[in-house]
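Narrative progress, year one. The postdoctoral researcher (J.K.) led the effort to move from monomer predictions toward full complexes, under supervision of the PI. The following entry was the first complex the group processed end to end, covering 1392 residues in total.
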Amino acid sequence: MTRTVRSRPRFAPSKIVLLGVVSATIGVGAILVGTASRVAAAEPSAASAGDTDRAALDPDTVTYEKDVRPIFKTHCFHCHGEAGVAESGLDLRLRRLVVAGGDSGEAIVAGHPDESPLYQYVRDGDMPPAEVPLRPSEAEIETIERWIRQGAIATEPEPEDLDPDQYITQQERQHWAYQPIERPALPEVTDPSAATSPIDHFILARQQAVGLSLSPAAERAQLIRRVTFDLLGLPPTPAEVQAFIEDTRPGAYARLLDRLLASPQYGERWGRHWLDVAGYADSEGYATEDPLRPHAFHYRDYVIAAFNDDKPFDQFATEQLAGDELLTPPFENLDAEQTEKLVATGFLRMAPDGTGIKGVDKALASNDVVAKTIEIVSSSMLGMTVGCAQCHNHRYDPITHKDYHSFRALFEPALNPKKWLPPSRRRVSLYTDADRATAAELEVEAKAILAERTKKQNEFIEATFQKQLAKLDSALHEPISAARATPAKERTAEQKQLLKKHPSVNVTAGSLYLYDRAAANELKKMADQAAAVRARKPLEQFVRAVWEPVDQPPAETFVFHRGDHEQPTTLVAPGELGVLAPPGGVPIAVDDPSRPTTGRRLAYARWLTSGKHPLFARVIANRIWLLHFGQGLVPTPADFGTLGVEPTHPELLDWLADEFTANGWSVKHLHRVIMMSATYRQQSGRHAKGQAIDADNRLYWRMPVRRLEAEALRDSVLAVSGDLNLKAGGPAVPVMANKVGQFVIGKENLSAGRPGAVLPMHNEDLRRSVYIQVRRSRPLSVLDPFDMPRMEPNCTVRSASTVSPQSLMLMNSPFVLKASERFARRLRREAGDDVETQVRLAWRLAYATTPSDRDVQQAVAFVQAQTTHFASLPKPGKAAKSKTPPLQPADEAMTSFCQALLSSNPFLYVD
Amino acid sequence: MSVDPKRNSRRHFLATNAMSLGSVALASLLQQDRAAANSERLKPEPRTYSLDPQPPQHPPRARAMISLWMQGGPSHIDLFDPKPKLNEYDGKTFPGEIKYDNAAQASSKVLASPWKFAPRGECGTELSELVPHLANVVDDICLIRSMQTGVNNHGQSIQAMNTGQILTGRPVLGSWLTYGLGSETQELPAFVALIDPGQLPVMGVENWTNGYLPSLYQGTVVRPSEPRIMNLTPPQRLKGKAQQQYLEYLSHLNRQHLEQRQGELDLEARIASYELAAKMQTAAKEALDLSQESAATKRLYGCDDPACKDFAERCLIARRLVERGVRCVQVFTENQRWDHHGSIRTGLPSACKKVDQPSAALVADLKQRGLLDSTLVHWGGEMGRLPVIQNDAGAAKVGRDHNTYGFSMWLAGGGVKGGMTFGTTDEFGHKAVENPVNHFDYHATLLHLFGLDGEQLVFEQNNQERSLLEGKGRVVHEILA
């Protein structure tokens, strides 16, 4: 086992085999993952069931489709079959082609591996060629040997006429994820009283097969903390905890869920989850300049509102893929509803995008944007890693090179590298005609001031020139004046030399300030006046959107040979990936005559959300499950293909997907269904039996203990200390580098590249993390150590690390220290001066539980010890410029106590 | 399943060095080990990075670097690169072409160096009287007189020297070194920026940025006053007993919480990570504590001289950090300290006074401790100065404008030849003419000394492999020992 999937640092191999960009990145990761998914078919112990068709195959019979073709596909097709390449005349894509052999004769002799050149080459390591880093495993080589020995069997009829590039075997089609979603019957369980929801039947059925059961229900205090973090990303208040514990009427828990689902903070929490998979960022990334996307925030607000309004998910997805096609161009004088549909297409504008950056290869960069957009769409909505098919047929999944480009053709009319819209031009103004008229009037006023300024400037330059001239020998005055008066291009060599010899007379608008500071200041004042006039114009808002041009024929999409955009080959029509399409295909017109645009994306969105798509509903339901339980029913939420991990509970996944579809694609409904289950409500403690049978908790015999995500942590610290600013929406709160290079919330105020004075933030710095600017190159220093993802291009699953920089942040960072101080002030304000009362309140605020008497005693003892210590220190002086008096020892001690709570595991983890 | 000795050693390593994990979860790794032991299954996980020591690609000459960064552009023709021609032309019109930065004060009159040069050491390298201490170690340094970046303002030239390109957002040298080699200490930051009590250098925090590399490789600023290291050390009033009591109480809360959650590896890992954090504080405090140094050593650096005390202390700290395994230390002069557009006759001696003794002492001290062989010392800025006058307003007021076409810097130790000069500028010291060394050459040479191949040390961003050299630069073999 290697240390990590990808070793670091990355030393490029001295000789790179040209497999194209994407295949090169498969590298090490693919070897590990690939091996893993093959050897790990067995789920926890005897519990794995339901693999009937697999079990039906005689395990000793090696067949071409099931066993050998996947090996050839991974290791050999690139040179022996694909994209018209058949080196040595050998094509391995069908059994009959293998048998036919190549230029130098037969490749295999059925029944005799040792006489089969193909086997010998592979066994001896001569094939694949030595420089190919991805090597077949011993098990794979042995499989080839057995296949030949057993007679080189194929069980499926092989196509005679079909393009073998498009050939998908029945074996491949039978992968679980490509089967239609069918609502399964609820499994029988021995103790139906243990189930409070249909979900529990599926969970219990798997558990009872191995002798496990659900853990008892969590205590109410624990439960309300769990659901409040889960739905809002914030802790419950002591009053909310109290009310829930005291609500003895039936339905208390359901009412709690209703209250939380109706909170505006719900959308901020769950919107953030979707922003992860959409790859939301307020900057373009791609290159080091990382320019800002000042209008991206509308999309963020759209997502938050969609979750709060429980916008049906089919509509949510359709608007994001094709909101523009739901409108009629031109996009002028838009109402709120129309604006929303256009804003939604910001989803297709989230990929890192270097096309607006100077010096970037535009053709390469724009093709990258299209590829990354496809990656975002497919990983978020299809749960497929189609990117591997960008350069060649997918090595593991039945996605062909051509499939990939058909999928690309869905988007290319809008994202057309041939007619590329740079970032600055892909925006739609929300100005109305009236706004425009007002702005024009003010512009006239500003221009007048600027004209006056230019006049003044010329006067200053002339005066300065005369002054400089006066310093020189008077004999020079006339020739220098003449030289200067001559346009630069017409000057004689002598004149040029003269001016060069006396550089100080070269006064220009740019250098005037070096001579005459007062004049420069006066000019600046006038420029400021003009700017002030312009500032009175109505604020012009823009939407960063995707749309198709209506005045040109739709972009044509070609298969790129080996993924190289400079080598287009065959023209392809838009379409769904072959293996996902129903028999007869998906009706997507090349150019829908009934619409002003091609209608491709809209047609695709309609199919995706038709309820018949095998993946979409499963992928979304799985993601929602994952966010509730910390692990997906499919543990690889962005890969439902053969490299992904198979679902632990395939029937439950289908049941959830169907429940989701059948209930108007309501996400809130799915939350309720999941959260009402006994599975969700159980305790988190481990027990020996569970540990012995299923240590990874794949069977959900307990609720996992989870660490707060970066945003939830920061937001909770602010909430507990009483300062969280719940202002919603609007432009991103800016992030800047402070004097030591940490990224903090603040308005950048640079002077010669260095941080200048700190500008007031007016409590914007206390807003929820979802509103903090996501500048790809400037991860907020408070969030970064806690695994805030970098969007390159999106994040399909977050990690939860435990590292010392986190501890140091909690121990010493100004953010936590200040919050602790405010927390302590809050305690005095709300609990009075008694330390014990303060401690009790602090405990309830931070932990949402009531402390035991012993907890209180220990806390009070700690506060007293700290008070004694602080009192023994010399009194702190009043900090310069600080309005607040220094803390008294007792307050310093209480601050220290508050910090201990905020940095402790009971606060950082949720049961 | 067979026992994998690597895995066992890794577990041991994790238990003692949680800081080195970077973004790897200790708990998840332990869990992964166990999961692998149970089911032979690997979980796909996000890319991870760490500061674990990494083997170089070929045997290295240098193990650590100390860069003394002279921001503003020390006048090479007044310090390192004597030009008799300037005396000949003093006050006369410069015969060639000059590109000025400041036109308003520009003049075409040549300015002879007001200071005397003389051969120094056994090697006989000529140095100015302004750097008498450097003369004592001149046999250990390699003076490069043909540096050039060709971009004539501070910000861009600093970027070029630090990151290879004039654009911002790219990683600096120290980040590349720690990315390539990790760190030999897990209790101290791998890459340290020792900043001046004055204003930050031009480009501010870009001087130690990790750019597109993971933030693990960012330089950690050690401030001249408390708190010396942000987040590493608490504010003054919380130091010592206050924080110790806090940590004890915190540990109590965490252990009590864990008691009811036996088997939660992540919770245990966090308790361990607080313990390591506390160790790091002790280690940093110890490393920055100069009271452990002898009076003789402090005198050697000039800690007793108010004119250079601050810089001397930082040079001494730099040596202490390198002794303790830190990979790269940069010591900065304050904003534009060397930018002598005017009053060079007073400004330059004062800048030299600040750094000359400490810089020379650092070389001598590293040598006597046997550390110079493995520590590369760099002394230089982003540019030199022009041979002509700027601000022709009397002898006391004159200065020199920017010159990035030819300037000097010196290297010592770490596999570089001592007692030599390399490259030359033209007879006025304006442009490098023989063996020019640009920033890419400098970087290629430096990576080579550290056992890294500049072409192969790459980071992938958006499917593009990025490197410090981006295909440019040559290793200057002539200066290698």
